[in-house]
Amino acid sequence: MSEGSLPGSSISLRPAQDIDSPGNGIISYRLVDETLTAGACSDNAPFELRVERDTDGSHDVRLVLQSPGLDREVCDQFRLTVIARDAGSPPGSASLVVDVVVTDINDNRPVFQRSIYDTEISENVDPATYGSALVTVKATDADHDANGLVRYRLSTRSNTQFGHLFGVDAATGTVKLLQAVDYERLPRGGVVVLEVLAQDQTDASDSVMSSTMATVRVRVRDVNDNAPTVIVESQSGDQDIIHVVENCANGTLIAHVTVSDADTGDGGRVDCRLLHHNQVRRSLHVAGHAVCRLSHTSVKPCFSGMRSSHSVREGQRWTF
């Protein structure tokens, strides 16, 4: 009987036969539950015996399922004995052993051992460095055979965002790196969040495929793989040569210089120096993204903590 059978469902049994005259024939049936004695499971069988007499005098004997019904994952087999007694003196009896095997339906979702899995990699590293798996997710399904077979995949959203970088083995649940990762192309913070689905499967037409989800967080370590970028915005439009009129007033704005680095941490902090034709160097102490102001008399900082002093002469070439 299927575990999906509703209370009131029944199993028809062959009635007992007695060749004696009707006066000494079958008069009663009795049901004995031997499930606990047989060690099949720890629960009593949820069945009752129902006997009805047909118009021809024969008996319709049935086992009728009672509430709350069946759950194969709790008990997958019951042992019952049906005893028939006749009207003789002394009465005769016979017994029939009935083993009720509970068949499975797909009524359980896969369950992950953990809801969140964490791993860490470095950017720009060959996937072969990490072998066949960054991390392995694991889910189990209490159902039987095909109903309990678990397959893994990325969610549609994760596959669209990161399917070119990460993959999941459908059979084993291993999460693998497909190609080197560029930290600067990732979401802020360098953490990739993958949604991994565990999905069971069945060929039964009366079952619905079900799935559950776990999260895999991949933290990507940034490396210093980007050079600083310098952007010069001068009054004349030139980026390499700044022209200064010889009689301009001190403090006249000559250019804005923006220095940035895409890396994070120490790799994104820049140390700027002015290099002149006479090889004189002056340091600019910069933290992070820097903007400085070049004037006629000096290189003036746009915020506190950036220090420099050096005159810029007419037509002088300079670089960062």
TL;DR of this structure?
This protein is mainly beta and 320 residues long.
Keywords:
320 residues; mainly beta; Immunoglobulin-like; 3 domains; four-stranded mixed β-sheet; four-stranded antiparallel β-sheet; 2 helices; disordered C terminus
Total helical segments: 2
Q: What's the order of the H and E elements?
A: EEHEEEEEEEEEHEEEEEEEEEE
Distance between the termini: 82 Å
Strand order of the largest sheet: 8-15-14-11
Share of β-strand residues: 35-45%
Number of β-strand runs: 21
Percent range for helical residues?
under 10%
If you average the pLDDT, what whole number results? 79
In quaternary terms, these chains amount to single chain
- CATH architecture group name of the largest domain: Sandwich
CATH structural fold name of the largest domain: Immunoglobulin-like
Q: Shape, please? A: rod-shaped
Task: Look at the structure and name the CATH superfamily of the largest domain.
Answer: Cadherins
The unreliable regions are 203-208, 279-320
Class derived from helix and strand content: mainly beta
Tell me about the largest β-sheet: 4 strands, mixed
Radius of gyration over all CA atoms, rounded:
41 Å
Number of domains: 3
Per CATH, the class of the largest domain reads Mainly Beta
